[in-house]
Design brief:
heterodimer; A: 359 residues; alpha+beta; BirA Bifunctional Protein, domain 2; 12 helices; 9 strands; B: 801 residues; Phenylalanyl-tRNA Synthetase, Chain B, domain 1; OB fold (Dihydrolipoamide Acetyltransferase, E2P); five-stranded antiparallel beta sheet; 21 helices; 27% helix; 28% strand; Fdx_antiC-bd (chain B); transferase activity (chain B)
Chain lengths: 359, 801
């Protein structure tokens, strides 16, 4: 009796196992069939949740296994797991397939005209003279110079007298000045910054500055503008030599105009330097062979310079018996004209946007 | 100074070509601006003789000439009718390029080959001082003494070059041929051969005049006055060689006496003036003019003098304006029999002022202005004596020499060691010896230390450094090596303020504005409109009236640039400038004015057009956006308040800009009533002071951590009256939102249906976030509705559905 009972139970269980198994396989077959028909990743996901999710049909099957014997459970578990693995694999394959199809579709439909212009971020332009000044500044900053400044409306004293140009000095005529009163004028050069800086710094050594800025002369034609820009340079220390001036200016010229530039010094005259020198740089267009730019000479004049006159050192508060110095001054417009090949200096102050937007 | 090479060769040996010599001088510090070849155009022109003249077989108006040009005979066809057999004429041979631009080629005229051209004055650009009278209506006919076959240029003395010296103010000595010769001699190591008077050691072996005294009344204005008395004067033309040299130097020959004075001035550098002796009544006075004193000068103009004018006068009246121009009355004329030739030193300042005032500038005044050698006055008269005798123009009989002041000869020390140090060249003592020898300076040397006697003509050499320059330029600036300063190393860097300006410029350019640079002087009215007439500083001597005052605002300059561009069809302009404005606080200025750096911008037109994005007109918000970029870059909190000045800016579209309660500038659309004046429609602009911005710039960035907890975002749209400012609503939102409200942004502004008239809709995005925890929907909703209630209360706002 007991045996019979056992047998009956066994048969019931067996049937139940068979039923569960077939149910699992049915779920599997149906899922695989559906998978092949689904076209979107969303539907695919939906189906996955329907079968494998917490409330999914396959998960429900697992829950029904509670009635099974300890011996049967592992067997059924294995079946379920096999099916799960198989389905997951199928899903992955189908997903990959769909993704590939979607990519194909996207690539097939997305087409632009690559020759149309890009969306510009409209940026402004910095004036060429400012660019040149900043470049000059950067070169001298790299050589350990500071940038000094002085007023554009200047006293006769700083603009002339402190630079060894007493009243009625004939060299004053080299510069036609804009006057505000008899004693106050628009500075005609950046050189007054030399004395102002020395007054401020002395007895500190070394003095090593450049001073860029606007200067003014009463002149207006194709090659002169009543307002223009200069960069002054001043170095004062014990034992400063004229050869140091040449070395610094050679470095500058090569940085500014190219590695292969050479410079030459020619005797000249400035009331505030002695000895004085005009500095030529080998022509940046022809390299020194002679061309239209350098008028066949191979050289282009770019700046004036010299050893600081003892009187100027004195007026700046330094003892010329103890220290020496050199100074130089260059016209920014001239350098811009050379650097950019500008035909007419007046373009620089005309501010036509078609000109400015080239820079 | 024009230097005739032919003249210079007489004074110094030259073995260089004109162009080479020019280079030598320039590299030696005497800049040669131009080399003029006087023979240009005459290279293939020779003197020929007409051997025969025959009618052209096929042309009535042409003649066939057989012409001897010395070594050969050529056939030339001419149309000229003024020729005779035996005439000497200039012949342009094949290959000549005449001064008038004509090129001579072999040609055939009606079947006859012509191998050159006979030339007229016009073709050679010559005046009627050359050739016979018959020359005027055809070919130039030369005197029969003209040597056949000789180069025509040589015959005229034009195979010569003229160097044009551009002299620096420190070398007035080179306004004398003898000193140019000395310079050439020094630079080329040749010996000069100067007139014996050039070294000034000779004395005039003439008696002192007794019938005339020189009375120098103002010895500051006249250091020395010498006069040479000349009798038996024969006025006539000066010899050709002298005329030629004067012409080459740019001086017009007049007569033998005037030419001698000019010649000696060019040669020795001492201006001279010849008076008709018989016109001098009594003594010669060198004095300043009396008020309203008058003189008729050589140019036949009556001039009114003043007590600043130094004059030469006799006992009765002015004879000459000292150093500037002689008087007509005492002028040398064809009937002059005796002379007083003046050789004096006048104050450079006085001569400069007088020549400016009278508008008279001459070779003489130029030399006095630059300063002449006071030691050379009598030597120049000695040279005059020689020439008077050579030319038979007169007989020197006596002289006077009144001396008030002669500066002592200078001695300047020169140390070999210090020169080596300053120039950076290792110099041997012998090299300095050589330089001083070449300069022909007297000196003594002891252990490398030189004591140099400076010649009186080198007024520029005063201190050791001046001699160092002499050494450097004579041994050549190329000898200076290139070294770098040996002292302490220094770090180059911009000051914070300099860096600030640079960054400002970059931000503005990156935002789309183009930088311009305008003149800092401008029209007074325009500056008064935008700046302050009370503070603007006028120039005494502006270039033009419209550049008459220093600007107190950058705006007029920028508006001008914008208008100019628009007029040139550059219709879309967005520009900025960073520059000084100038503020005087008194008239006239007694101390230097304040220079205030400002930044300003003007925009008019539309942003860039593009096929993808629509362009938009530049408006208030365009520039405000740029200001916000500036504020962000420098960590500034700018406030915008209704503009106070509503006459320049559109009252409904402008703002004053405040930084910590200080007004630092303005922003807005130009007032419609000004549009016509400036030729700009709907221009927007701003102007700001740089200094307050710089002072309040954030020094360093303090970084905030990124919140770890998620943010919750809510949109809120409300309808408020049009007058309500968005900023007011926003700050209310911020206040009510407290710490949890991290960010508020306005994303839409709308007027029109269905919003009621007089109202606008403002839509905000509010982002809530806590640094400590994840916020719940509930608390955010609560906060959001509290904010809404607050706005409703304060602004009568309604939530937009």
């Amino acid at each position: 009796m007991f045996f019979l009972c056992w047998q009956l139970i066994a048969i019931w269980i067996l049937e139940r196992v068979i039923y569960l198994k077939s149910e699992i396989l049915r779920i599997k077959e149906e899922a695989l069939k559906n998978l092949r028909e689904l076209e979107s990743p969303e539907a695919l996901q939906e189906l996955k949740v329907k079968i494998l999710g917490k409330k999914g049909s396959l998960t429900a099957m697992l829950r029904q296994m509670g009635g099974l014997s300890p011996e049967e459970r592992p067997i059924m578990g294995q079946v379920v797991n096999e099916v799960r693995t198989r389905l997951e694999q199928a899903w992955e394959e189908r997903s990959a397939e769909l993704e590939a199809m979607a990519l194909q579709m996207r690539l097939a439909t997305e087409r632009i005209d690559i020759t149309l212009p890009g969306t510009r971020i409209s940026r402004g332009h910095i004036h060429p003279l400012t660019q040149v000044i900043e470049e000059i500044e950067d070169i001298f900053l790299g050589m350990g110079f500071q940038i000094a400044e002085g007023p554009e409306i200047e006293s006769d004293y700083y603009n002339f007298e402190a630079l060894n140009l007493p009243k009625e000095h004939p060299a004053r005529e080299m510069q036609d000045s804009f006057y505000i009163t008899e004693e106050i004028l628009l500075r005609t050069q950046t050189s007054p910054v030399q004395v102002r800086t020395m007054e401020k710094l002395h007895p500190q050594l070394p003095v090593k500055i450049i001073a860029p800025g606007k200067v003014y002369r009463n002149d207006d034609d194709a090659t002169h503008s009543p307002m223009f820009h200069q960069v002054e340079g001043l170095v004062v220390d014990q034992g400063i030599r004229m050869s140091d001036l040449k070395g610094i200016l050679l470095n500058f010229s090569r940085e500014m105009f190219g590695e292969s530039r050479e410079i030459r010094l020619r005797p000249s005259f400035f009331p505030f330097t002695e000895p004085s020198a005009e500095v030529d740089v080998s022509c940046m267009l022809c390299g020194g062979a002679g061309c239209r730019l350098c008028k066949g000479t191979g050289w282009i004049e770019i700046l004036g310079s010299g050893m600081v006159h003892p009187k100027v050192l004195e007026m700046g508060g330094y003892n010329p018996q103890v220290v020496t110095g050199f100074a130089f001054g260059m016209g920014v417009e001239r350098i811009a004209i050379l650097k950019y090949g500008i035909e007419d200096m007046r373009l620089l102050f005309d501010n036509d946007l078609r000109f400015l937007q080239q820079f | 100074m024009k230097v005739s090479l032919e003249w210079l060769r007489e004074l110094v040996d030259i073995d260089q070509s004109a162009v080479e010599l020019a280079e030598t001088l320039t590299r030696g510090g005497i800049e040669v601006e131009d080399v003029e070849d006087l023979n240009k155009g005459f290279e293939k022109v020779v003197i020929g003789e007409i051997l025969s003249l025959t009618k052209h077989p096929d042309a009535d108006r042409l003649l066939v000439c057989a012409v001897s040009v010395g070594h050969e005979e050529v056939t030339i066809v001419t149309g000229a009718q003024n020729l005779l057999t035996g005439d000497r004429i200039p012949v342009a041979l094949i290959g000549a390029n005449l001064p008038n631009g004509l090129s001579i080629k072999k040609s055939k005229l009606r079947g006859v080959v012509s191998l050159g051209m006979l030339c007229s004055r016009e073709e050679l650009l010559l005046d009627d001082t050359v050739g016979l009278d018959r020359s005027s209506d055809g070919i130039l006919i030369l005197p029969s003494t003209a040597p056949i076959g000789e180069s025509f240029g040589h015959y005229l003395g034009l195979d010569n070059s003229v160097l044009d010296l551009e002299l620096y103010p420190n070398r007035p000595d080179c306004l004398a041929m003898v000193n140019v010769a000395r310079e050439v001699a020094s630079l080329t190591q040749k010996k000069p051969h100067l007139p014996k008077w050039a070294d000034q050691s000779q004395v005039l072996s003439l008696p002192v005049a007794t019938d005339l005294r020189i009375i120098i009344e103002d010895q500051d204005l006249c250091w020395r006055y010498a006069g040479l008395m000349v009798e038996d004067v024969h006025i006539g033309p000066s010899p050709e060689w002298m005329q030629r040299r004067l012409k080459a130097a740019g001086v017009r020959p007049i007569n033998n006496i005037v030419d001698i004075t000019n010649y000696v001035m060019m040669e020795m550098g001492q201006p001279l003036h010849a008076f008709d002796r018989e016109k001098i009544k009594g003594n010669v006075h060198v004095r300043v003019a009396q008020p309203e004193e008058k003189i008729v000068t050589l140019d036949n103009v009556e001039r009114t003098l003043n007590p600043h004018t130094l004059i030469i006068a006799d006992d009765t009246q002015p004879l000459a304006v000292a150093g500037v121009m002689g008087g007509l009355d005492s002028e040398v004329t064809e009937t002059t029999k005796s002379l007083m030739i003046e050789s004096a030193h006048f104050s450079p300042v006085s001569v400069r002022r007088t020549s400016r005032r009278l508008g008279l500038r001459s070779e003489a005044s130029n030399r006095f202005e630059k300063g002449i050698d006071v030691s050379g006055s009598v030597a120049a008269l000695g040279r005059v004596c020689d020439l008077l005798q050579d030319l038979g123009a007169g007989r020197p009989v006596a002289f006077v020499d009144e001396v008030k002041h002669i500066p002592p000869r200078r001695q300047v020390a020169l140390s070999t060691e210090r020169t080596s140090t300053v120039l950076g060249i290792e110099l041997a003592v012998s090299e300095i010896h050589q330089v001083l020898e070449d300069l022909n300076f007297e000196y003594q040397e002891n252990d490398g230390l030189f004591r140099v006697e400076i010649p009186t003509y080198r007024s520029d050499i005063e201190i050791e450094e001046d001699l160092m320059e002499e050494v450097a330029r004579l041994i050549g600036y190329d000898r200076i090596p290139t070294t770098l300063p040996q002292g302490d190393q220094t770090q180059g860097r911009r000051t914070p303020e300099q860096e600030f300006r640079r960054r400002m410029r970059k931000v503005l350019a990156q935002s789309g504005l183009d930088e311009v640079l305008t003149y800092t002087f401008t029209r007074a009215e325009a500056d008064a409109q935008w700046g302050s007439a009370k503070h603007s500083i006028p120039l005494l001597n502006p270039l033009r009236e419209e550049l008459g005052v220093m600007r107190t605002s950058l705006i007029p300059g920028l508006l001008d640039v914008a208008a100019r561009n628009v007029a040139r069809r550059n219709t879309d302009v967005s520009i900025f400038e960073i520059g000084n404005t100038y503020w005087g606080d008194e008239q006239p200025l007694k101390k230097l004015p304040k220079e205030e750096l400002r930044v300003a911008a003007v925009a008019v037109g539309k942003s860039d057009r593009h096929w993808f994005n629509q362009s938009s007109s530049y408006d208030f918000y365009y520039l405000k956006g740029i200001m916000e970029a500036v504020a962000h870059e420098f960590g500034l909190k700018l406030e915008y308040r209704l503009a106070e000045n509503q006459s320049l800016l559109h009252p409904g579209r402008s703002a004053d800009i405040y930084l910590q309660n200080e007004c630092v500038g303005f922003l807005g659309e130009i007032h419609p009533s000004l549009e016509k004046e400036w030729g700009l429609e709907r221009a927007v602009l701003f102007e700001l002071e740089m200094e307050p911005l710089f002072k309040k710039t954030r020094q360093t960035v303090r970084a905030h951590s990124i919140p770890r907890f998620p943010a919750i975002q809510r949109d809120l749209a409300v309808v408020v009256g049009v007058e309500t400012s968005a900023e007011a609503v926003m700050s209310k939102i911020r206040k009510l939102g407290g710490n949890l409200l991290q960010h508020v942004e306005i994303f839409d502004v709308y007027t029109g249906k269905p919003i009621a008239e007089g109202h606008k809709s403002l839509a905000f995005t509010l982002r809530y976030q806590s640094l400590e925890r994840t916020l719940t929907d509930e608390e955010v909703s609560l906060l959001n509705s509290r904010i809404l209630e607050g706005i409703q209360q304060d602004f009568g706002a309604e939530r937009r559905k």
